[in-house]
Structures are given as C-alpha cells and as structure tokens.
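STRUCTURE REQUEST FORM
Protein name: EAL domain-containing protein
Source organism: Bradyrhizobium barranii subsp. barranii
Requested output: structure tokens
Priority: standard
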Amino acid sequence: MDVPEALKASSLELWYQQKLHLRTLVPSGAEALIRMRHPAWGVVPPAYFIPDESDPHFHALSEFVIARAIADWRYLLGQIGPVDLSINLPISFLADDAAVRELCYRIPDHAAFAGLLIEIDSAEVIDNLDLAIDVARRVRLHNIGISIDNVGAKWPSLLGLPNFPFVQLKVDHQYVTGCADQRLKQTVCRRIVELAHDSGAQVIAQGGETRADFLAAHEMDFDQVQGYLFGKPMGVKKFARSRTHFSEKEPIVLRHGA
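Status: completed
Returned output:
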C-alpha cells in the first residue's frame, strides 16, 4: 500500500507524543507523527511509506497532516481542553505560496487556539535559509510558528540571523540521548541552548530516554523535553486518556547535586 492508496482507504493516522516543561513536568503540547494502519502489517512507521519530496503525492500527504491535526485539535479540545500541537512539513511545501495561504486560512478561529507549530528539519532550513526566514515571518502573523527540528552539528549556520524569526529549536536526539556521560554532546547542547535563548526562542531536548538524560537536560537549562521516558507516540484517543491520567504518574524528583 502506497500513499495514494492509504489516503483513499483512510489508512493514515496521526499519533501524538507528549512534550513537557522540563522544570515543572507540566504537559506542554505534543508532536504529531504520521502512521499507516496496514491490513496485514499493522501499524507502519513513516520510514516505510513516506515518498520522496519530488513525488507528486508528497503534497497530498502534507495536506492530510494539516487537516488531520486541526481536526484532532478540535477533538482534544472537547475531551481534555486545548493542546498545543506541532506538525512536520517539508520546506518544499512552504515554498508553495498557495499552499501557505491555504494553511493560514485553515487555522482555527477559536479563543482557545494558542497556535500551530510547524517543525522543519534543520538541514532543509539551513539549505534554504532565506526561504525559511521569509515563511517564518509571514506565518507568525497567522498564529503559526516555525520550529527547527533535529538541530545538531550545523547549528553555527543559525548564528547571527537578524530578527531571529524561529520560535523553537529542537536538539537532535543523537546529542540528547546519553548526554549525561558524554562531554562532547553536552558541549553541543549547551551551545544550542545559548543560541536559542539569546534569540528569544525555546529549546527542546528530544530523545530523553533515561533519568540521567533528563537530569542533564535540566542542568543545561533546556525549556522542554520529549522522549520515551515520558511517553511513546500514541493514537489521539489514547493520547487524550493518557493526558487525563498524567497527574497520577510518579514524578521525577530532582535532588540538589544530582
């Protein structure tokens, strides 16, 4: 089953992974991650079906993600209240002026809607920096923010941007996972945190899988954390139930000098 077949058969879903404020562990939105429900293979991750950007069906997939995320936001609003959502889109989609206008038109006109985050891979942002900056400035007027995803070794390319237009940087999981024991990873993380905060943006540690990683991210002054330590991606109905019971989980206690 390829993407056109999946769209026609309504086999695509968005699953959600929780983000948390790092210092309070209060839920702080969620990232939408696409999945395919295959009749023989079950739930299929995107690596097995996402088409190349040059594929004419890639645009239809992006349109699905936008429409589904907005519909899921309305569902979550009725179940548990407003949840700030982020979606992943390619830079090629945002290069289409008509697509960007349609995206802005779809944003809910609701008092509880705090905005939509669009995550773009850092390699695409850096390779198309002028375009990314222009789009980020335009969509902010429509309650849409651009988050740079998977920020890593090429972070210096983002230094010195005038009127930094991006609202969030997400540090690549390869620099967060295991950072408690690796000084090089800590150095990269600290530099990206400094860049984000100096630019007025938030910074997320993605890939927090252990308590040691969490404590290291806390010490390095990340704003938010996302990873399997706090929850795996799950369907929207299960996500709503998990948010309802989140406060019942045992908190991670920070001890001085830990």
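Reviewer notes: Strands lie at 12-21, 27-38, 42-44, 85-88, 116-121, 144-151, 168-171, 202-206, 224-226, 234-235. The chain has a mean pLDDT of 89.
Form closed.
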